Amino acid sequence: RRIWLPISRSPRVFPWYVRVDPRRKNVPAVPPVEIAIDGVQRSANTFSSRAFMFANPDVKVSHHMHAPASILLAVRNRIPAIVVIRSPRDAVLSEVIREPRKRLKRGLVEWNSFYGLVRPVLDEIVVADFKTVTSDYAVVIAEVNRRYGTSFREYQNDPERRSEEH
Q1: Which of 9, 3, 44 is nearest to 21 (CA)?
Q2: pLDDT at 164
Q3: What is the pLDDT of residue 159?
Q4: pLDDT number for residue 62
Q5: DSSP state of 35
Q6: pLDDT value at position 73?
Q7: CA 3 from chain center: how many Å?
Q8: Which residues are CB-neighbours of 56 under 8 A, at least 6 positions away?
Q9: Residue 25's pLDDT is what?
């Protein structure tokens, strides 16, 4: 983690490192990626990326990088980006419970570092809070479509609600 943190914050080094590290299965937000979905751990990254890919199985997605560099690359490459966010208290506590060797202070440093680095590009990305992602993700995808002029299919968190609406 001590090596990963500075690398994940560098748009210059990050794409190279991800490509040469055999443990990394995901790809950075560079073409041919069509959307980037990221945030700190325990902020609904898994739900967000899997729900998106379920609704859009043919779309190339950069996800689970937990790297602000990937979001900065998405902005640089004009790739739509969703940054999921959860309160630092909830995200860090959830991560510490999941990874007992991690300390609260380290989690807070990582949370602050991630969102501090993406803060300057907030007007160029879609920020999705944990509650909206986990309860009404269609709203998030609709905002991506509106902002970027895309036509991604919306994921319905509650299929019964959708059938009632139609």
Answers
A1: 3
A2: 45
A3: 60
A4: 93
A5: E
A6: 93
A7: 21
A8: 152, 153
A9: 67
d(CA 94, CA 65): 18
Q: Which residues of the chain have pLDDT under 70?
A: 1-2, 21-25, 159-166
Nearest to 69 by CA among 107, 104, 27, 123: 27
How do beta strands 81-85 and 35-38 pair?
A: parallel
pLDDT reported for residue 11: 82
Residue (of 77, 102, 99, 84) closest to 14 by Cα position: 77
Report whether 150 contacts 162 (CB < 8 A).
no
Query: pLDDT tens digits for 26-41?
Result: 788 889 999 999 999 8
How much is the pLDDT for 53? 96
Q: What angle do CA 149, 50, 25 make, to 5 degrees?
A: 100
Length of the chain equals 166
Q: Which helix (H) or strand (E) holds 81?
A: strand 81-85
Q: Tell me what percent of the chain is helix, strand and coil, each rounded to the nearest 5.
A: 55, 10, 35
How deeply is 26 buried, as exposed, middle or buried, from its count of CB atoms within 10 A (0-12, 13-18, 19+)?
Answer: middle
* 112 three-state secondary structure: helix
* CB distance 69 to 10 below 8 Å: yes
Q: Cα(97)–Cα(39) distance, rounded to whole angstroms?
A: 18
Contact 126, 37 (CB under 8 A): no
